[in-house]
């Protein structure tokens, strides 16, 4: 029988995380471009981190979530030294699927926005399957 999400996972759940951009966060450092600004892979990782934080305190024992689908528009460059904030809001719950709306901002400017879908999984079974056990 498929595990259903905890009733605590209801639309409207939010969380945010911050990052002060360093040289290691740039497109140059990440290999995603040759410019010294916040790289798209780091923007995505930050947005995903916000989705994880949003569910962390309510996560049932033995369960976790994994990323399944991402739609992200990286709209503006952010130089080293600036602080960006990623916010995730749970927009929809469909069985084990959790759809988040995410935004990354630099002050009042929108750096990126999109949607991230995560799937609730049994952590032990997932890891065993990944390692062929």
UniProtKB/TrEMBL annotation:
Residues 21-123 form the Fluoroacetyl-CoA-specific thioesterase-like domain. The active site is at 40, 48, 74. It comes from the Bacteria. Substrate binds at residues 67, 118. CoA binds at residue 67. InterPro entries: FlK, FlK-like_dom, HotDog_dom_sf. Coiled coil: none annotated. This is Thioesterase. It comes from Phytohabitans flavus.
